[in-house]
Amino acid sequence: MSRERVLKVVLIVVGLIFSALVYPLTIFVRQEPALAMMLSLYVTLGIFLLLAARRPSANRSLIAFTAWSSLVHAGLMGTQAFRNMVQRGELWGVAVLAIIGVALLVLAPATSVERVPAAVA
Asked: Taking the model in full, what pTM does it have?
C-alpha cells in the first residue's frame, strides 16, 4: 500500500474519531463547559480531516497542525496526569494523541501543491 493511501486511511480514521466526539460534546455542554468548548474544536477538526483525505498534498498545513497540536496536547495532558492535576486514566488519551501526532508527521506529504491561477483569455 502506498504512503499516500495509508495517509488517507489515517486521515479518515482520525477524522471519524474526532467527529464522533460530537456525542460527548452534547453531554458536557452543561456539566463541563470548558471541556465542551475543546471538544467542539476537535469535532470541527475531524470534519476538515475527512475533507483533507481527498487530497492530502493540498492540505499539508492542516495535517501538520493536527499532528503538532495532538503532540502538544498529549505532552500537556501527560504532565498534568503525572503531577496528579488530572486523573491517571487520562494517560489513555495521551497515548492516542501521541500516536495520532507521530503517525501524521511520519506520513505527511513532503511538499504542498501550489495553486496556479487560471490563464485569462
From this structure: 0.84
